[in-house]
Each structure stands twice: as C-alpha cells, then as structure tokens.
Amino acid sequence: MLSFKDMVLHRQSTRSFSDKEVELEKLQRICEIASLSPSSCNSQPWKMHIVRPTYKKVADLRKACQVVGLNPFLDNVSNFIVVEQTFGNMKSKSGGFFSNNDMNSIDLGILAAHICLAAEEEGLGTCMIGAFRKKIVNKAMDFNVFRKIRLVVAIGYPTDDYEIRKKTRKNIGDTIDVIK
Ligand SMILES: Cc1cc2nc3c(=O)[nH]c(=O)nc-3n(C[C@H](O)[C@H](O)[C@H](O)COP(=O)(O)O)c2cc1C
User: Fold this and answer.
1) Ligand 1 center to residue 159 CA distance, Å?
2) Ligand 1 centre and the CA of 66: distance in Å?
3) Which domains are assigned to the chain?
4) 74-101, pLDDT tens digit by residue?
C-alpha cells in the first residue's frame, strides 16, 4: 500500500483518460469513503451525484464543463462525480455567520480532496473541474436553477502512458510559517 505521502505525490489532475470502463462499485466506494470527510459541526452539506456513461445527458454535462474551449480532455470522459452543496445544519450556518467564514466551501473542498485521494487508491484518475457553466450543468443534471453544483469531478482510468508530473508548488517558505 502506498504511504499517504506517496499517494499525494501520485495524485495529479488527470487530463488524459483511456476508454477503459469504470466499475460502478469503485465509484460508490469512493463516494462512501469521501462521505466520511470531516465538516463544520458535522453538517455534511453535500450530495455526490455519480454520473454514468449511460446517463442520457452525459454529453451535455461534458459540454457544460468545456466553456470557451476549456477542458478539451473531457471528450474522453463519461464518468463524473458532481458535487452539490446542500443545506448543512443551523449550527454550522450560525458558526460561519459569526466568524464570517464560508464553512460550506471549506467542507466541500475537503470532500473533494477525499474523493480524489480515494479514487487514487482505486487506480482511477481525477480532475476537479471548477470552470463550468452553472446553468447548463443544472440543466444537464435535470436540476432546477436553485440547486448548487459547486464542483464536477471527472473520473476514469488514465491512459497507460500518462506520466506522473513533478509537482510545481510555491516555495515552502512562502506557504508555511512557524510562529514561535
Ligand atoms: C477548485 C478547483 C477547480 C479546478 N478546475 C479545473 C478545471 O476546470 N480544469 C482543469 O483542467 N483543472 C482544474 N483544476 C485542477 C488544478 O488546475 C490543479 O489541481 C493544479 O494545477 C495542481 O495540479 P495537480 O492537481 O496536478 O497537482 C481545479 C482544481 C481545483 C482545486
């Protein structure tokens, strides 16, 4: 089993997907593990929608994530985990209000990280997609305009020759500060 560090180094935004079929059980397992993510006041303000290649509007969903020519690699993706923000709970809402902190966004970000790492363990590649047309995504999902899709995770098997990139990140000194 990969160490956590190795898994983090291995996880990358996959932008080259093979046409290998993705097992539904794997997607379900990933979402079940992700649902164990922590959240503010355990409010769990999320719903994960597993979209399968057989879904009649999967092409519309894909298109909604390809605004102005972005994300062309999605042409080969037919499985998605669509992350919807739902109502959490009053305790988290009031905590966020008094601290002026957007707890839901933090919760959903943590959830997304769990999804991607759980997928990694299953040998699947993911790419979080934040650049999408909300209205069109809602339409593709058959949701009314009030539903809040916050993230679309493209998921599938990476192509065999897809290399693991070296991580490019800011200097550690710029992102970690030790207060003594
Ligand atoms: C909230 C969020 C939205 C993102 N949206 C997109 C996107 O629309 N298209 C894309 O190709 N990558 C997207 N990414 C992936 C980032 O570009 C990527 O995580 C970053 O460049 C670091 O690379 P790595 O994931 O390979 O380590 C998104 C990532 C996050 C966290």
Assistant:
1) 18
2) 14
3) 4-160 (3.40.109.10)
4) 999 999 999 999 998 888 888 888 888 9
